[in-house]
Amino acid sequence: MRFFKLACKSALCACLITPWFKGYSAEIDFVRDVRPILEHNCVSCHREDNAKGDIRLDTKEATLAGDDVLVPGDPESSSLYWTTTLPLDDELIMPPIKNEEKDYPLTEDEQAVLERWILDGAEWPEDIVLEPRKRLPKKISFVEHVQPILELHCVACHYEGKVKGDLRLDTKELAFATDYVISPGNALESDLYILCTLPMDDEMFMPPAPAEPLSSGDLYTLRRWIDEGADWPSDITLTPQKKSLTILGTMPKDLYQELGFSAGAVQDEFSEYEEDIHTSDLGFTMVPVSGGEFTMGSPLDDPNRGDDEWPAHQVEISDFWMGKHEISWDLYELWMLNIDRDNRAFKKLEETKSDSLSDAVTKPTAPYTDMTFGMGKTGYPAICMTQLSAKMYCMWLSARTGRFYRLPTEAEWEYACKAGTSTAYYFGDDPEKLAEFSWHLNNSFFQYQPIGQKPANPFGLHDMHGNVWEWTLDQFAPPPTELPIAKRKNPLVTPTSLYPRVVKGGSWDDGSKNHRSSARMASEESWKQQDPQIPKSVWYHTDALFVGFRVVRPREIPALEEIEKYWPSEAEILAIPSR
Question: At what angle do helices 387-401 and 329-336 cross, to 10 degrees?
């Protein structure tokens, strides 16, 4: 069967070769033209940790190493191209068509870009590593996908109240008044798109500083929309949108003082305990983790270590409790959906100080879709939250219980995961045993699983390897080129920017390398790629179906002046858009 397909492919491709579409007679630019096609349609199934068919498309080197995957100068011999031109019912078509109502092939324009790029020699800058991004819908909707981009990034300078450059973009009639602004069917002849792809230091770059440039996802959406004909309902008038700021709820320092916290060790017995949420029938188990010294990071000669992992070095950690399991949807929705307050009203409970304090903690806006994505809720780990959401939950949980809860630092998390071991996983070095201890790519059935189904590690903690990645407090920063001379004690890389931040542990969607105790991953803006809200929600990472968290409780409470290292800062709370 395979021989027959290979024998026929040249003839098939010859029949389907597309002409040079619209603006594609121009020189193909890898970053502008090719990269978004590969990232949004191909890389999710062909990258380092998910190389289906042993094919990788995330780096030039890996792509060229594949058997006839990319043959510069010969698109008909490059499976990267010819598989995209196959009939919809062909089992080799890429991207796969499993459901014709949902899945779709590359557009003719995208096929033409790949064909021309390969024919011209397949230039690919060596330093560019591609990242997987979610596919766009089969058909771009102006209202759902394009209108938010224009209103947030463009219309403020080009509408009736402010007309820069004699250009208006608030109505279809005015936006299409000149054919060079939007040229339906040809993004590469449309200033609306092209000016947004220029180098940022170009005086024609749009939107101009200090505005943020369009994300790669927004650019790809805009291009697809124009190439598909730039449909714009005539009755829709755009209005500029901005972030509005408001104070929502109590501030961290105020809550700290209201709860009567002070720096120093808590007097509670250092043993396992059950934390019950008395307004519900829910609770969770906290396990004591005695502090000590451990080797953080991985040996330099570990063939599986990532370039961004810490090299092995000594770290000292103080005592803390850690959640036995990842926070479940049941527990998370008490805060996220305000079920805690609803329970009290239903049970007609008399209001307490804890009620008023927990009610004052900012709650998320309602999710615009089911954030479980059909994978299960009761008993399953909560996912798709931002780090801000996880930190705010810890703040709410502290108000609800009167105990100081927070996210773990990266060092605390790794210490708890290794649990006194020095091997790649807490159960040893053999990745073949991973299925016994972890939910991962090869045994998860392509979704997360209920918490606590796999054996606990020596500290009594479940799912430290796999199921979902878990938030830590740290900024994701490349490790130093030289090892620290002095032993680090309770280290924390305090965040200075929103991205990237550290998640640990691997997930149901990862291979064995990312499940190692020392592995780490950086958060990124693309985790909000499919979020249709403008501005994109500060609460949800719609595309991070693999990220959750668990809580810790340090045996020593930090000082008041340090509280914003562990709970959301005042600046983060003030920057939450009004509802």
Answer: 90
